[in-house]
């Protein structure tokens, strides 16, 4: 599951990101409303944790813009405000839930899980098929034909980024941000290492390098 946190309080955002990552989610963080709208509009997130008071564009406008564009990603709104009017306004713009600061981290995680469960009941299938490659993102299992391929957690995470955008070019920086998180400062060539391992395990022709742009997952021949 991929989550986006749009929160300008950097300490809070980092704390939430670390906690949710420990829960097993892939987490991205942005601190500006315009950046948040751009990221959320990509359509690759399972849930957005959205602050209301943001520089550039507030959470109400982000939420209403997403809904007007037909984006139904679950949105959990955060705000330092308190009162029925604020809650009603947030929900009227299309938010799915509302949490007032200060809040318990345990409560936030419970709200996130509840929204994701609700989404899962009517959401897309976690099974992705490309030729004889089958990737179950819920069970975290991979098959080539009838044979299951064992992957490490990081290998699966890299493959997941590619399979969710099969046929499209996925940049190395996108993979770094989503798999190693926004704060990663190590060698960016680590992506090449994992792609090489995936090719060895799944077949060299499966992942094509697009020079200067990134990688593209292609149907096995």
Describe this structure in words.
There is one protein chain. By secondary structure, this protein is of the alpha/beta class. The protein contains eight helices and twelve strands. The strands form three sheets. A five-stranded parallel β-sheet has the order 2-1-3-4-5, sandwiched between helices. A hairpin with a 3-residue loop joins strand 11 and strand 12 (214-217). Helix 6 (153-163) crosses helix 7 (172-180) and helix 6 crosses helix 8 (190-202). The longest helix is centred in the middle third of the chain and has 18 residues, at 105-122. The radius of gyration is 18 Å and the shape is elongated. The mean pLDDT is 84.
Strand adjacency order, main sheet: 2-1-3-4-5
Distance between the termini: 29 Å
Find the count of extended strands (DSSP E, 2+ residues). Answer: 12
Q: Characterize the main sheet.
A: 5 strands, parallel
Mean of the pLDDT scores? 84
Number of helices: 8
Share of residues in strands: 15-25%
Backbone structural class: alpha/beta
What is the H-and-E element order? EHEHEHEHEHEEEEHEHHEE
- Binned, the helix content reads 40-55%
What is the overall shape? elongated
Radius of gyration, in angstroms, nearest whole number: 18 Å
Q: Note poorly predicted spans.
A: none
């Amino acid at each position: 599951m991929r989550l986006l946190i749009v929160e300008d309080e950097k300490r809070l955002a980092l704390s939430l990101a670390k906690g949710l990552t420990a829960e097993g989610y892939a987490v991205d963080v942005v601190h500006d409303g315009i950046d948040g709208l751009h990221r959320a509009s990509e359509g690759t997130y399972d849930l957005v944790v959205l602050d209301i008071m943001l520089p550039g564009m507030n959470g109400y406008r982000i939420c209403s813009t997403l809904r007007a564009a037909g984006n139904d990603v679950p949105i959990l709104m955060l705000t330092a405000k308190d009162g029925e009017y604020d809650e009603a306004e947030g929900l009227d713009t299309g938010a799915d839930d509302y949490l007032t600061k200060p809040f318990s981290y345990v409560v936030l995680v419970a709200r996130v899980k509840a929204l994701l469960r609700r989404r899962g009941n009517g959401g897309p299938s976690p099974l992705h098929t490309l030729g004889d490659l089958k990737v179950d993102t819920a069970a975290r299992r991979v098959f080539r034909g009838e044979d299951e391929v064992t992957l490490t957690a990081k290998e699966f995470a890299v493959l997941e980024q590619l399979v969710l955008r099969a046929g499209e070019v996925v940049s190395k920086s996108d993979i770094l941000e989503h798999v190693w998180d926004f704060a990663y400062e190590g060698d960016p060539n680590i992506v090449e290492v994992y792609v090489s391992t995936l090719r060895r395990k799944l077949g060299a022709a499966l992942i094509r390098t697009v020079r200067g742009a990134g990688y593209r997952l292609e149907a096995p021949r």
